[in-house]
């Protein structure tokens, strides 16, 4: 999985948990919670969906790695590649 595909997975999950959000103008280098109306429960839902849909475990100490789309891609792409291997 590429970094761009990883970003799309995260956006797809956000679209599921926050269907009213306009994701068309999300900037990849800006914190998601600064751009979208996501609360801490929404963020936990993202983590849970990553595990449920893709088998990706994100330890609590790594949650800051999911702050922006770019940081999500940096952190999650190797995990997706490991799951797919």
From TrEMBL:
Species this chain originates from: Oceanipulchritudo coccoides
Keyword tags: Phosphopantetheine, Phosphoprotein
Any one biological process term the GO annotation gives: lipid A biosynthetic process
Keyword Ligase: no
One GO location term (cellular component): cytosol
The UniProt record lists the keyword Phosphoprotein: yes
Residues covered by the Carrier domain: 4-80
Gene Ontology molecular function: acyl binding; acyl carrier activity
Name of this chain's protein: Acyl carrier protein
């Amino acid at each position: 999985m590429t970094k761009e595909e990883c970003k799309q997975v995260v956006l797809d999950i956000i679209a599921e948990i926050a269907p009213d959000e306009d994701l068309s103008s999300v900037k990849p280098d800006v914190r998601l919670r600064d751009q979208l109306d996501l609360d801490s429960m929404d963020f936990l839902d993202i983590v849970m969906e990553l595990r449920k849909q893709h088998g990706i475990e994100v330890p609590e100490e790594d949650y800051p790695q999911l702050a922006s789309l770019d940081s999500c891609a940096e952190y999650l792409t190797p995990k997706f590649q490991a799951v797919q291997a």
